[in-house]
Amino acid sequence: MTKDTIIKVFEKSFPFPIWKIEVDSLQNSLAIEFRDSETTIPSFAVLDFRGQEKCAPFVADEKEWTLAAIQGDYLILKRFGTSSPIQAGIQIIHISTGRIIKTLMEYVLQEVYQDFIRANHRAVPSGMPVCIAIATGDTQYAGRETFKLPHSAVHYPIAYQGFVPAFIQELGFTDQLWLQPYGDLFIWSYHKEMDSTYQLHLCISDKTQRLDEKVILMDLKRLIPQPYFQVQEYIFFLSNTKVEIKAYLV
Fold it and tell me: What residues pair up with 245 in beta bridges, in sequence order?
C-alpha cells in the first residue's frame, strides 16, 4: 500500500436496504442485515474487511429476527416485538456451515459477552439471569460469574468545532466538518454542494498539509448525519440508498 493515500478496498451491493451492521474487530468480520422491502424478511451476510463473503447469506424464517452480534464463527440473532424493541427469542448460527446451533424462544437477550450471552427467562424477567455458551447454546445460571465484554475497535468521527487550518478551509466544505485522528494522520470528512445535490468527501492530512482526497458518494439529496465508521485502518461508508457498502484503507 502507498503511504499516506486513500485506497478503495471494495464496494458491495445488496438486493435490499441494509438495516444493521455488527463488527467483529478480532476476526475482521462484518455481519450485515438487509431486509426484503415488501415482506421485511431479513437476510444476513458476513464479509471480511476485503469484501469477500465468508458464507452464503442466511434468510430468516420470520421477520421478527434481527442481528444482535457477530463473534468468531457465530451469528447471534434476537427477536423484537410489535409493541416493544425486544422480546423473547435468541438464535445462534454457525457461520461456516449455516447450521443453527440453538434457538431459545424462552429467553430475552440482555447482553452479549465474550463467549457467552446473558439472558433472562421471559416468565421471570427480573429473576436470576442465565448465561448461554455461544459455541454450544448450553445454558446455566449466571450466578456471580464475571463476564468480559468482547473487544471492540469501532470508532466514529466527531463533529469538529475547533480551529480549522487554512489547508482545510480552502476545501470549501458545506455545513459540518468531521475529524478522526489516526496515528500521526488526521481523517477529515465533509460535504460539498454541487448543482443542488451533495457530495461526501474524505481527506487525510498531517498537521501542515493535505495528503490525499477522495469523493466517496455523489448525487446525495441530503446531508448525511454520520458519514462512516472506522475499524483499524479501514473506513466503511453506506450509500445514500443503504443498498451498498464501501470500504477504504488509510
Answer: 12, 238
Residue 28 lies in a domain: yes
pLDDT of residue 123: 83
Asked if residue 86 is part of any domain, the answer here is: yes
Q: Measuring CA to CA, how many Å separate 237 from each of 50, 113, 142, 194?
A: 14, 27, 38, 20
Asked whether the whole model's pTM tops 0.70, one would answer yes
128 close to 115: Cβ distance less than 8 angstroms? no
Q: Which residues neighbour 161 within 8 Å (Cβ) at sequence distance 6 or greater?
A: none
Q: Report the amino acid identity of residue 101.
A: I
Q: Which of 1, 48, 38, 47 is nearest to 17 (CA)?
A: 38
Specify whether the CB–CB gap between 17 and 3 falls below 8 A: no
Residues 87 and 198 in one domain: no
* CA separation, residue 47 to residues 53, 59, 112, 245 (Å): 4, 16, 20, 11
Mean pLDDT (whole number) for 112-131: 87
- Residues 36, 124: one domain? yes
Query: Which grid coordinates belong to 39?
Result: 415482506
Residues 6 or more apart whose Cβ sits within 8 Å of residue 180? 155, 156, 157, 158, 186, 187, 189, 230
233 φ/ψ angles, rounded to the nearest 5 degrees: -90, 10
Is residue 62 a contact partner of residue 81, using CB atoms and an 8 Å limit? Answer: no
The tens digit of pLDDT for each residue in 180-201 reads 999 899 999 999 998 889 999 9
